[in-house]
Each structure stands twice: as C-alpha cells, then as structure tokens.
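Dear Dr. L.,

I hope this message finds you well. Following up on our conversation about the binding site, I have prepared a predicted three-dimensional model of the protein together with nicotinamide-adenine-dinucleotide. For your records, I am including the exact sequence and ligand specification that went into the calculation, followed by the structure tokens. Please feel free to forward this to your student if that is useful.
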Amino acid sequence: MPSQVIKRRSRGFICLNAHPAGCRRNVERQIAAFAGKSSSSDANAPRNVLVIGSSTGYGLASRISAAWGCGARTLGVFFERPASGDKTASAGFYNNAAFHEFAARDSLFAASLNGDAFSDACKAEAIAIIRRELAPLDLVIYSLASPRRTHPQTGEIHNSVLKPIGQPYSSRTVELDSEKVTDVTLQPATEKEIADTVSVMGGEDWRMWMDALAGEGLLAPRVRTVAYSYIGPELTWPMYRDGTIGAAKKDLDRTAASLDASLSQKLEGRAYISVNKAVVTQASAAIPVVPLYISALMKVMRAKQLDESPVDQARRLFAGFLVGSPNAPVDEAGRIRLDDREMRNDVQVEVARIFPQVTTDNLRELTDFAGFQREFRNLFGFEVDGVDYERPVETEYTW
Ligand code: NAD
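The resulting structure of the complex is given below.
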C-alpha cells in the first residue's frame, strides 16, 4: 500500500486508527529510560521472559524492562489488528513492530505471538516457541486486559462488564468526548455479569498458562510469575475494588496464593500480585469514574513530582522485586505495592478535596484533564512530540 498521511480519527473519545511513527517514538522513548542502566550482569536478572499482554500499557513496559533493563530474551503474546486496506493497524501492533526493530538493533532476542491468549492453540504455539528459544522461563508476566474471553473448554463467550455490585452507584464522571462533568448512576451487575467478568479478568487463565508451562517442564527453578492488579482509593471502590472488576481481581489474588504455594513447593518459585498505580491506558480509560480520578491524580502527583509512567513502574518492579531481591517487601496480603506513591496520604487527601469540586467549567483548571487527553491520544501514536504528522508513512509493518 502506498504511504499516506495519517490523521487521528475518533468516535467519541476512542481513537479508531493509530500512527506508526508516533507508536514507534513512544516505544523508543520507553527504551531510552534504560540507557546505561542495564542490570544484565546481575546473576539474578531474568534471562528468559514470557509477557502475556505485551503490546501496550503495563505489559509493554514490562517487556521493555525485561529486555533493555535485564538483557532478557522475551516472548510477547498479544491480540492486535494488522493494517488492512486503508485501515491502519492497531497501536499495539505498531508498538510491537517497533519493539522488534529496536531489539534487532540492540541484538536482543524477541519473539512475538499475535493471537488469543485465552485459547489452547495460542498456548500450544507459545510453548513450541519457548521450547525452541527460551527454555526454561525464569519470569512470566501476566498483563492481559480484555473485554471478552472465549472459554477454551466450554467454548462459551464471557463478556466482562464494569459495574458496581449489590446496589446502584452514583458518582461524578467526565464524558470524555464532550468534556462534560456529570453525575452518573450505574446499575449493579447481575450474578451472571459478575461471573463473566471473573472469567475474563480473574485468575483462571493465568493458572492455565502456568499449569501448561509447568506441565511441559518449561519453568526454571526459582521461576517467578507476576500478575497486575489495582486497589486505589475509597473514592473509586464502589466502581473498582467492590465492583465486578474488583471481584475478578480478588479471584486473581486467590490464584496468586495457590500458584505461590505450588511453585514454591515444586521449584522454589514465587507467584506475586503487583498492585500498580493508576495510569492512562486503553483499559483504564474505559472504566467509568476512573478517567476523572486519574485526571485529578495526575495534577496532584505532578505537582509533587511523584508521577510515574508504566515504564517507571516496571523499572521499579524489576529493580526492587524481581532482580536480586528474593525477599523483597510485600504487604500483609503478600502483594507487591507499586501504588505506594499514589496512595500516600497527602496525595489522596488532595485528590479527595479536588474531586467533589470539579465541574465542566473548571475541569481543566482543577485537574490535569489536558494531560489525560494527551496521554490517551499518545497511546495511539498521536500528538507525540518529535513526530511530523504531515509526512506520509507506511502503514503495513511486520516483525
Ligand atoms: P492495556 O489495554 O494497555 O493492555 C492489554 C494487553 O492485553 C494488550 O497487550 C492486549 O493486546 C492484550 N490482550 C487483550 N486481549 C487479549 C487476548 N485475548 N489475547 C492476547 N492478548 C490480549 O491494559 P493495561 O492497563 O496495561 O492492563 C494490564 C494489566 O494491568 C491489567 O490486569 C490491569 O488491570 C492492570 N492494571 C492497570 C492499571 C491502569 O491504571 N491501567 C493499574 C493497575 C493495574
């Protein structure tokens, strides 16, 4: 296909296309955070790493951290759309192409699998690649965020929902396209919706991956596996922690505990939940109330110079918990806490003070909605500094 000038197309707040040069620049910038800071000479640095959900957000940041922070060989699994006709590929597709380009430049082994991580076929394909190229694995990162899952055993399609449980919940929210601050009331989920969300975002699939890898003898002694979670402040609990997504995260906690027990017994391995900070990703922007909370949080954390990007968080995860620190501190429930800065009392007091005062008129003054919007567009490769958007670019890439 001839190269073309790509302008952002959106429906409401959602971007319908992506810019390859902007995505490439985002990946390049995340990699640059590791210049001169590799811990690859550390005997405990992971060498062979599988990242499930590796094309955007926390998974991409983790994969970059494993590769450029530790010199690891990585396999990334994700579900992204290639370019077709006059449609661009999805942002994660371009991110992955850029990941491979830079990995080749820096002589880092990388393999990628674009498929449905919930399926048996995808796991079998990953296992074949791992056996050939990355065995045994010493780190598995589970960073999926998906709206649906086809169950590999029943064939049933489960759709996740973002709803409160038990009673309706009313809160202030921002309509992302019109920038109107309004009050919304969300109706509680049905029992089926709760179960479906747990099926999609809970721990069953993580457990299936780890069982499949263990069954094939592909896990190294002292292997570690980490899945990501979120807790956040009480302000978001009816929607998040006590809602359908929270029910799924509690299931993930239980899976971590049982995986930890079996891995430590068999391989002296560990399974962790890492509770990460709220950041702008495609997944988090879809949760009602959360974008307004993140906009207020960004304002407060930036003023205090505490804000962190996904790659800052991933770097802290690896340096503090995964490389050379077998007994790193965890909370009373055994979880790694990377949300410590977000949850600081002075930060949360300030966010709680701002939140009820926000109106349509003062949204951009009281919160960093502009920053939220820019970061959201950045996710799709738009409004990225240093990119010439008037220049025609190729849309078809591969790795
Ligand atoms: P994201 O939307 O940026 O990334 C999701 C990833 O999952 C992508 O790589 C996507 O391709 C992949 N994916 C989705 N469906 C798939 C499928 N069927 N098969 C294979 N890959 C698939 O999301 P994110 O925000 O980085 O979330 C990752 C994890 O981090 C989630 O567990 C989320 O709850 C957690 N987390 C997010 C935040 C936040 O604020 N964004 C905070 C704390 C924890």
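In brief: DSSP finds 13 helices and 13 strands in the chain.

With kind regards,
A. P.
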